[in-house]
Amino acid sequence: MTEPVFSTLYELVGGEETVTRLVAAFYPRVYQHPELAPLFGVEMEEIMRKQRMFLTQFLGGPLLYSEEFGPPAMRMRHLPFPITPQRAEAWLACMKEAMDEIGLDGLARDLFYGRLTQVAKIMVNTAG
């Protein structure tokens, strides 16, 4: 028996279903986190929709985010928000907990979380 072959990380993590579940597990944590909550507005549903679109594209799935909003340019889009190293770590901790909650593990999790760690570092725009 041969192992399935995945052409993208999006497929490896489980595609749309996994991304949707992850975002649903992630944002309640963000909105409850004392370091992160001040950065987010009241429109959690819209933020979650954009995150689903971005993560889909980020993982190699359909280019949903770019089709609606243009190139992601996430660092530029987040410059108005003070993102400290502590906030980046808090964001990653919330993501790790969300991955735990939905049972995302193994190689898919390792690769995905590794990429998110790189993004979190790039997003830091203030020392604190």
From TrEMBL:
Cofactor(s) required for function per UniProt: heme
SUPFAM superfamilies: Globin-like
Matches recorded under InterPro entries: GlbO/GLB3-like (IPR044203), Globin-like_sf (IPR009050), Globin/Proto (IPR012292), Globin_bac-like_CS (IPR019795), Hemoglobin_trunc (IPR001486)
MF (Gene Ontology): heme binding; metal ion binding; oxygen binding; oxygen carrier activity
Pfam families according to UniProt: Bac_globin
Superkingdom of the organism of origin: Bacteria
Keywords: Heme, Iron, Metal-binding, Transport
PANTHER family in UniProt: TWO-ON-TWO HEMOGLOBIN-3
Annotated family: Belongs to the truncated hemoglobin family. Group II subfamily.
Name assigned to this protein: Globin
Organism: Brevibacillus nitrificans
